[in-house]
Amino acid sequence: MFISLRFAAVAAIASVIAFPAMAADITVGLITSMTGPGASIGIPYSKGLQAGLAYRDEVNGIKVKAVQLDDASDPSTGTRDARKLIEQDKVDVLMGAGATPTTLAIAAVSHELKVPLIALTPTGDVPGDAGAWMVSIPQPPPMMVEAVVKRMSAAGVKTVGYIGYNDAWGDLVYNALKKVADPAGMQIVANERYARADTSVTAQALHLVAAAPEVVMMGGSGTPGALPFIALADRGYKGQIYGTHALINPDFIRVGGSAVEGVICPAGPVVVAEQLPETAPTRKVSMEYLAAYQKANNEPARGGFAPYAFDAWLVMLDASKRALATGAQPGTPEFRTALRDAIVTTKELVGTHAVYNFKPGATTGVDERAQVLVKLVGGKWTLMQ
Hints:
Blueprint: H1 2-18, E1 26-32, H2 39-55, E2 58-59, E3 62-70, H3 75-87, E4 93-96, H4 100-113, E5 117-119, H5 128-131, E6 134-136, H6 141-154, E7 159-165, H7 168-181, E8 187-194, H8 202-211, E9 215-219, H9 227-234, E10 240-242, H10 250-256, E11 264-267, H11 283-297, H12 306-324, H13 333-343, E12 349-350, E13 355-356, E14 372-377, E15 380-383
Helix pairs in contact: 2-11, 2-12, 3-4, 6-7, 12-13
């Protein structure tokens, strides 16, 4: 009996040596706006992440799980969320957030605690070591606004009115507009701003109408982005209105109604996936995304925001495979660093919005393949030729 027990113990020890404990899960922390004025953007991010999980939830046999927190459309809450996810949930990578100001706040925590951040909003380049810990999935405003200005220029436009948020996103769009409008010989005759939580922009709309621009450029997003459209329509403005990719959102269409009909925006190709030619580089992945979204959320995919989270998931999966090849284990500082190094060296990764190529020191990694022009016709986005 003693010999049998001793043999069993040795066998048990041998089995531990032969079959080491399974590696820890790869953990992703999503910070997004489920409540507050940014919810019309934040909720699609959450659904896009669910589509990512439905598409693939493992890397080399290691499970990938996600933990999600609500930033309540508030940068301070987003900062606390980031610390909790890193210090308590031990996430390997952060994704978020619901708005540019919150993303920039999270980026500071990401840099401090050395956890990579895949941003779901445009941030502009973040200089120094802080920027080395993040990349941004969405198309940068300068690239998208340039496409709009080219359209304006082709139509002979000489005067532009601007209205946008009084925060980092509003500044990004305005600065991009000014940078390309001036060389094109266009004058910006008005620069009006409003807060995301405002319920009226009457005064700003009156100033715009008084300035009599040939066209208006919008620097809002989601449902708050519809407010200036409604105000301008109420005051009889008839000029063409242009927006950015931040307006490609079902709730923007729902809230804006007839006032937003005819707006022209730059967008990622996934927004009109079925209208793309078969040869388009992102079409195949976009169709796979549409199927994964339907499976995960039991509804058809609409709008441009959920695919940003899906593309962030694809970047994370690709980078995780390369990080694991270094021998680093999920849940460790070594893996976080290896994952960061892999993310910022992503090459020709095909997503729904773009083909991604990141490099150290650059926040964005997209090119002209991430850009089409669309027009809202009958409540649906239509590809412009």
